[in-house]
Amino acid sequence: MSDIVLELRNVTRTFQVSQGLFRKKATLTAVAGVSLQVKRGEVYALVGESGSGKSTLAKMLLGLLPPSSGEILIDGAPIAAKNRVAVARRIQPIFQDPYSSLNPRKSIAQLIALPLVVHGIGSAAERHRKVLEMLDVVGLPRRLLNASPSQLSGGQRQRVAIARALVMRPEVVICDEPTSALDVSVQAQILNLLLELKRELGLTYFFISHNLAVVEHLADRVAVMYLGRFVEERTRAGLFAGPEHPYSRALLESVLTPDPDLGVPDTHLGAVFPNPLTPVAGCPFNPRCPGAVDLCRAEAPPLVRLPDGWATCHFAPHGAARTVAA
Amino acid sequence: MALLEVEDLVIDIPTAMGTLHAVGGVSFALERGETLAIVGESGSGKSLTSLALMNLLPKRVQRKAAKIAFDGQDLTTISQAGMRRLRGNRMAMIFQEPMTSLNPAFTIGDQLTEALLCHRKVGMKEATDRAVHLLEKVGITAAGQRLRQYPHQLSGGLRQRVMIAMALMCGPDLIIADEPTTALDVTIQAQILHLIADLKKEFGMAVILITHDLGVVARVADKVGVMYAGRLVETGTSRAVFKQPRHPYTRGLLDCIPVPGRTQPGMPLGAIRGQVPNLIGRLDGCAFRNRCDFAGPECAADIPLVRTGADHEVRCARLDATEVAA
User: Fold this and answer.
1) What pLDDT score does A273 carry?
2) Which residues does the UniProt record annotate as the domain ABC transporter (chain B) (predicted)?
3) How far does B221 lie from chain A, in Å, by closest CA?
4) Domains in chain A, ordered, with CATH?
5) Closest CB from A240, A260, A272 relative to B243
6) 3-state helix, strand, coil in chain B (%, to 5)
7) CA-CA distance, A77 to A281, in Å (whole number)?
8) If DSSP codes are grouped into helix, strand and coil, which group holds residue A309?
9) Type and span of the H or E element at B195
10) Which are the contacts of B58, defined by CB distance < 8 A and separation ≥ 6?
11) Distance in angstroms (rounded) separating the CA atoms of residues B98 and B240
12) What percent of chain A has pLDDT over 70?
């Protein structure tokens, strides 16, 4: 088995958006030429604002949306060659809101067993045994087996969602903001559980979040996405020690640690909200970048290799000799 | 005289199973130009407290208070008409969900000018000018054109700014903001918090900030009240509460959150064991005692807020124990 469990090669996804009844449809590029490699057993985090294309990317990874161009590979084999069911055996999702991601009319046992039923795995007795095992794994009491989601708290529901994702023993789990709908004390419990399960079951996480404090706690590698493109991809330690892209820097500065001696940081990002339908010339980030110069408005930035990753900025790396990838 | 004085606010909700004691005796005072943050998790009663101040509680919910005085006016006995004259005029509210709190059937301009036209003797022209002025103030470009747009034509960040502008239309003395930045991206969150701070300085407004985000609280609040199960368990200046938290619940909350540079990546976060107590029926003693590591027999009695510093009060019977641990 290869070390790379998940790979994206130049993946692009476009949508045709209606501009009005009699106007021509416009092309929205939600994901533009994204390449990445996720190693087995790693937590690969994806950060970016809403509208940056994070969720579109997640949908493509789950096989729910085909890419317009480019390739997605699992264990070196293209996802396109497999059908939805085969993909779902290897990759499972945990969604943001455990209040809407669990069918309120099913029991906890039915919810957790559903993937096994869909894939036709095991007899009813074997499935029941697996469900009990999963309840133990995620730390839910067995008496909840016949409860309905409405009887559970937010944290318990998210544990059910995790059990349902893991019952198939997937290799990769796509976590789409798994704790942002939860209270802080519950968030800590779920993050602890995710880390523990990763160690015990050797899971790989593709972790989507806009909470950078959570990403810093969990991730091994971090990709920063802006308007459908990756603008920086680094090791967690490298990115948090010295972000090279001005957008990554702004995101990091926006993290509010509970320190009463500090005020609210000024990111200097400006109020200009990017319209993904009207791409700008040069660097896509230049209208919001506090350090943009004429070069940034004229030329797209190169991909600059860094010791632990890369960034796309005319000025990266700051104050060091640079090697620009051909 | 304080701008707002609340004494012994009690909120009861009759349910089929008995009375739910959502808020059990909350008292605080707020000066002009001050920011008070009320922190707590879901179900702590923080949002109900804010609705109670505005007299916006649902009909079946019962509100009792020894005193609610706004700028010398007694709000416990005020008439509906009197309350309507204050609401949206001298006290305004910024609601949590910018997606649902704006009326989709009216333009931004209609909704912005409504309060001013209704409370002040001004013409349409004057009201529109003020709306444009405030939209610019909250960082919205092309404000004149925005007035003719409908909420669905704006992004989440822009809608939240419109909500803030709307609350400011009549130049209120008090703004109650319920999770004003929770639904927003971190970069926009920083901008909105800046804006609230600037406006506070400029107009001398008092702000009550309701949130569960400890980072936001530490950075913007002058005073903090930590709420648990309907009671304030710790109050004080932001410095006192964050630098020397004395209540075990406050400490637990602070240990739960990952903080870049302080928490060790990948290591378990602090967790508060157990669950929030059921608030239906009679409640005795400290509501946190069955989740607390320091709990003793004295915690079953009613516990008053104890002054532990110049601007610091804690509702805990085991202050001796939390002092040792500090």
Assistant:
1) 62
2) 4-254
3) 8
4) 4-311 (3.40.50.300)
5) A260
6) 35, 25, 40
7) 36
8) strand
9) helix B186-203
10) none
11) 33
12) 95
pLDDT tens by residue, B173-228: 999 999 888 777 787 788 888 888 887 888 889 999 999 899 999 999 999 999 99
Instruction: Establish if B136 touches chain A: CB-CB under 8 angstroms.
Output: no
Q: Which two tokens stand for residue A136?
A: 């133990």
Domain boundaries, chain B: 222-260+268-326
Dist CA B201 CA A279 (whole Å): 38
Which of B198, B211, B249, B256 has the most A C-beta neighbours within 10 Å, making it the best mutation to test the interface with A?
B256
CB B111 within 8 A of CB B149: no
How far does Cα A254 stand from its chain's mean position?
19
Q: Which tokens in the block code for residue B210?
A: 């309701």
Helix axis angle, B124-137 to B156-168, nearest 10°: 130
Query: How many degrees, rounded to 5, is the angle at CA A137 between CA A134 and CA A139?
Result: 105
At B226 the three-state DSSP class reads strand
Torsion angle, CA of A179/A73/A91/B185, rounded to 10 degrees? 20
CA-wise closest residue to A231 among A154, A273, A289:
A289
Give the SS3 label for residue A58. helix
Measured in residues, chain B has a length of 326
SS (H, E, C) A153-199: CHHHHHHHHHHHHHCCCCCEEEEECCCCCCCHHHHHHHHHHHHHHHH
The pTM is what?
0.88
